[in-house]
């Protein structure tokens, strides 16, 4: 069964940090581009960060660049999102996604999605 399971969300204050995790199973994780997206209430799902299969390439949305870091552990089939200096604009459901033979930020290119984890940042 192909599955992505996110964890690590919660309620934090502005300026705090959180680390999200996404555990993958049933897919060729070490050959997959992995990404994080987020969706705030009333808004479209937006790209946050992506990482290549080897971890050698990463890319971030301008809104999180310098504050968020994506990483992966292929031995553990897990991808992470370290979020520092969070602000209320970061309040959203964060989704992990996987893609094969795709290196891009469009959500339509990702075929496997997790159920999401809620991040709420209070001011």
Polypeptide structure, described:
With 123 residues, this protein is mainly beta. 0% of the residues lie in helices and 50% in strands. The strands form two sheets. Strands 2, 4, 5, 6, 9, 10 and 11 form a seven-stranded mixed β-sheet that branches. The protein is globular. The mean pLDDT is 97.
Residue fraction in strands: over 45%
- Principal-axis shape: globular
Q: How can the largest sheet be summarized? A: 7 strands, mixed
Indicate the mean pLDDT.
97
Low-confidence stretches: none
Instruction: Enumerate how many helices there are, as a single number.
Output: 0
Please give the radius of gyration in angstroms: 13 Å
What is the number of E strands?
Answer: 11
Measure the end-to-end span.
Answer: 40 Å
Helix/strand class = mainly beta
Helix content: under 10%
Fold blueprint:
Elements: E1 3-7, E2 10-13, E3 18-25, E4 33-39, E5 46-51, E6 58-60, E7 68-73, E8 78-83, E9 92-99, E10 112-113, E11 117-122
Parallel strand pairs: 2-11
Antiparallel strand pairs: 1-3, 3-8, 4-5, 4-9, 5-6, 7-8, 9-10, 9-11
